[in-house]
Amino acid sequence: MTVEAVLFDWGGTLSTHADFDLLAMWRAAAEVLDPADPEPLAQRLLDAEHAWWDERVGTGDGTGSGTTEDIVRSVAQTTQLPVQQAISAYHGAWDRAVDHDPAARGTLKALKDRGLKTGLLSNTHWPRELHERWLAEAGLLELLDVRVYTCELTHMKPHPQAFHTLLDALDVTPGRAVFVGDRLRDDIEGAQGVGLRAVLLTGRHPVLPSAIVPDAEMASVAGLLELLPSW
Ligand SMILES: [Mg+2]
């Protein structure tokens, strides 16, 4: 195999996995939508987000996608409510919680120096602008040739369409690309399903026993620099 491109998941792969208080993020939106009594609404927004994820990638096959606005409007259906302001508050709350793997920049730089193409495929309801501001602040944006966010697609990982969108944009065939991710089903099984080799990042969060077998496992993205020449 000659590897031409390395494709990355974002959450828990290029970004670090922390113990976020998901309810606190939605509380920021709820305080805009219902200042007098935000807590019940914050819980309903969080429940709606969990259901949204589960329907698509938890129990689903990646069919369907959407935006933060879709989630908020599924709960706060009245158009009079300041939905955009609430979404901004919610996204702003995440600003303080996002961080990136210290090894990501050096690894991506080394891959680019070797002439490899790089790409990002993130299952997300957050908008491109938010992701790209975070990536730019971490010095990663310029090192990722193509970034695909499923909020702009009709499907999410592990659906084949999500992977093909990125491969087509990079003009690379699956047999010459590697996918790196932290989740067995969305990332590893999804990537292998379209013919990519798949590398599982371990140690980010507990991985339950599974019949899905990654082509390689590593504790840090930096391990790619040793692995890829052997492929
Ligand atoms: Mg991930």
Tally the structural domains: 2
Strands, count: 6
Query: CATH architecture of the largest domain, please?
Result: 3-Layer(aba) Sandwich
Order of helices and strands: EHHHHHHEHEHEHEEH
Distance between the termini: 5 Å
Ligands bound here?
A: magnesium ion
Helix content: 40-55%
Strand content: 5-15%
- The outline comes out as elongated
The first-level CATH class name of the largest domain: Alpha Beta
Radius of gyration: 18 Å
Class computed from helices, strands and strand pairing: alpha/beta
Compile the SSE list and pairings.
Elements: E1 5-8, H1 10-14, H2 22-33, H3 38-58, H4 68-75, H5 83-95, H6 104-113, E2 117-122, H7 128-137, E3 146-149, H8 160-170, E4 177-181, H9 184-193, E5 197-201, E6 216-218, H10 224-230
Parallel strand pairs: 1-2, 1-4, 2-3, 4-5, 5-6
The chain binds magnesium ion.
What is this structure, in a nutshell?
The protein is α/β, with parallel strands linked by helices and 231 residues long. The chain has helices at residues 10-14, 22-33, 38-58, 68-75, 83-95, 104-113, 128-137, 160-170, 184-193, 224-230, and strands at residues 5-8, 117-122, 146-149, 177-181, 197-201, 216-218.
Written overview of the protein:
It is a single chain. With 231 residues, the protein is an alpha/beta fold. It has two domains: 5-18 and 99-230, Rossmann fold, CATH 3.40.50.1000; 22-95. Helices cover 46% and strands 12% of the residues. It has helices at 10-14, 22-33, 38-58, 68-75, 83-95, 104-113, 128-137, 160-170, 184-193, 224-230; strands at 5-8, 117-122, 146-149, 177-181, 197-201, 216-218. It has a six-stranded parallel sheet with strand order 3-2-1-4-5-6, sandwiched between helices. Helix 3 packs across helix 4 and helix 4 crosses helix 5 (83-95). The protein is elongated, with a radius of gyration of 18 Å. The structure holds magnesium ion. The site of magnesium ion has 7 residues, from helix 1. Magnesium ion binds next to helix 1.
